[in-house]
TrEMBL record:
This is Probable malate:quinone oxidoreductase. Belongs to the MQO family. Pathway: Carbohydrate metabolism; tricarboxylic acid cycle; oxaloacetate from (S)-malate (quinone route): step 1/1. GO terms for biological process: tricarboxylic acid cycle. Its cofactor is FAD. InterPro entries: FAD/NAD-bd_sf, MQO. It comes from Agrococcus jenensis.
Length: 506
């Protein structure tokens, strides 16, 4: 017998976890079920080793302030991304305060964000970027220096071995974070399960069809040999990462037509050597190579996973036709349709530098990858670093009335006209802006409920519907409150604990 539920969440990552947690708070009587193809939630794109986990706030990521041909740049995108990340911080803080989330140190840690560049032209660009952003309320405290000693005090690994004559510059924000989205995902789903939400793991949704009564029939197959089961849902969220495009195509909603995906494999150099890790505590971003997609901006990252710190450098791009790290080599070919073939071709022709960049990355040797690392860390030793494969990122291509097809950077929200289905395509900043994305889905898919929901949403997310950057006092208060609740700043008792520990150490 087919059962009917209120909400089906396809995919067990941070997006479904965020949507599920919010919907459960707003409508606790609604029945919610989750379908994840892997044995454990949070193991594909949300896994900490499959993503950079920065907590994208655009504090130091240069791709959010691109330089126009005339040398000008705009702060609008950087401010917008920062606003979106503040929504995530506010929700997490509210969930910590009410007990939905346990100790926040299990998923977030204070980690300074930096930009580091070299060469006169890049130094000039970074100086102008700092001048553009330093007086914006959400970027308060952003520091700038061209002094090697100052930069060395911020990130000691960047300077030793570097030529003194090389022009260098850096910016730093101490408001940056490192986020383990896999741990956060499991915490959110764990609480939902405690409240009765059913999470099906080892379960693949292989069919999605709209029925005449407006509900959706999902055909779910257990990976451990059980017969397929069918579920009907009044609302479906397709948060399946790279698997979302195929399912949205199966839904046959007109809004999904014209979309295509180009998969890019990511890889990082990683070190767990305690001596190396201890010398670097920051996420340091550089400038992307010519033709590189925004997701390939090089960065030397402190990562904190299960309480242990490591360093990552990358990403190095590659190619596989898989749409998921655990996907099939036929993924890309199965999604090529008559309606998206031309957008793919036109987008590819318009982005030949990207094709050239990927070709160079695919065939790069270990020595070449280490040379790229040494542009950031000149004294890096070969033996300290190993290559790890990160997650797949599916770059969105879509129809464009003027160009025929364009490459779409960022995360694309696709919703059906009647509000019964929504899905996500694309990549970065993705996870960091999950709360903003879910609020967008609420406004598109549940307009009739929003009048009732708004007060609760504002209790959880105080700046919902407002712009923090337009209110300096509100921006300061929000950043300070979330930093305090999320344990991103030392509280008196932690200082006393640290002092007592130091005194007890011989």
């Amino acid at each position: 017998m087919t059962k009917t539920i209120d909400v089906a969440l396809i995919g067990g990552g941070i997006m479904s976890a965020t949507l599920g947690a919010l919907l459960h708070r707003l409508e606790p009587s609604w029945t919610i079920e989750v379908f994840e193809r892997l044995p454990r939630v949070g193991e594909e794109s949300s896994n900490p080793w499959n993503n950079a986990g920065t907590g994208h706030a655009a504090l130091c990521e240069l791709n959010y302030t691109p330089e126009a041909p005339d040398g000008s740049m705009s702060s609008a995108k950087a401010i917008d991304i920062n606003e979106q990340f503040q929504l995530s911080r506010q929700l997490w803080a509210s969930f910590v305060e009410d007990g939905t989330l346990p100790d926040p140190r299990g998923f977030i840690s204070a980690t300074p964000h930096m930009t580091f560049v070299w060469g006169e032209q890049n130094v000039d660009y970074l100086r102008r970027r700092w001048e553009l952003l330093k007086d914006e309320p959400l970027f308060a405290g952003l520091e700038y220096s061209e002094d090697a000693e100052v930069i060395r005090s911020w990130a000691p690994t960047l300077i030793p071995g570097r030529k003194k004559s090389q022009p260098i510059a850096a910016t730093r924000s101490t408001d940056g974070t490192d986020v383990d989205f896999g741990a956060l995902t499991r915490m959110l789903f764990g609480r939902l399960q405690d409240d009765g939400v059913i999470v099906h793991t080892d379960t693949t949704v292989s069919g999605l069809k709209r029925l005449s009564d407006g509900t959706w029939r999902l055909k779910a197959r257990r990976e451990v040999g059980m017969t397929p089961a069918e579920v009907q849902a009044r609302f479906v969220f397709v948060g399946a990462g790279g698997g979302a495009l195929k399912l949205l195509q199966q839904s046959r909603i007109p809004e999904a037509k014209g979309f295509a995906g180009f998969p890019i494999t990511g890889a990082f150099l990683r070190t767990d050597n305690p001596e190396v890790v201890a010398r670097h505590n920051a996420k340091v971003y550089g400038k992307a190579s010519v033709g590189a997609p925004p997701m390939s901006v090089p960065h030397l990252d402190t990562r904190v996973v299960d309480g242990e710190a490591s360093l990552l450098f990358g990403p190095y791009a590659g190619f596989s036709p898989k749409y998921l790290k655990t996907g099939s080599y036929t993924d890309m070919f199965e999604t090529i349709k008559g309606h998206n073939l031309m957008p793919m071709i036109r987008a590819g022709l318009a982005n030949l530098p990207l094709v050239g960049y990927l070709g160079g990355q695919v065939f790069a040797s270990r020595a070449q990858r280490l040379d790229a690392l040494r542009e950031f860390m000149p004294d890096a030793r070969d033996e300290d670093w190993r290559l790890i494969t990160a997650g797949q990122r599916v770059q969105v291509m879509k129809k464009d009335p003027e160009k025929g097809g364009v490459l779409q950077f960022g995360t694309e929200v696709v919703t059906g006209a009647d509000g019964t289905i929504a899905g996500l395509l694309g990549a970065s900043p993705g996870a960091s802006t999950a709360v903003h994305i879910m609020l967008t889905i609420f406004e598109r898919c549940f307009p009739e409920h929003m009048p009732r929901w708004r007060d609760t949403i504002r209790e959880l997310i105080p700046s919902y519907g407002a712009k923090l950057n337009e209110d300096p006092a509100a921006a300061r208060e929000s950043i300070a409150r979330t930093a305090r609740v999320l344990r991103l700043v030392d509280e008196p008792e932690r200082q006393l604990e640290a002092a007592a520990s130091a005194a007890a150490t011989p």
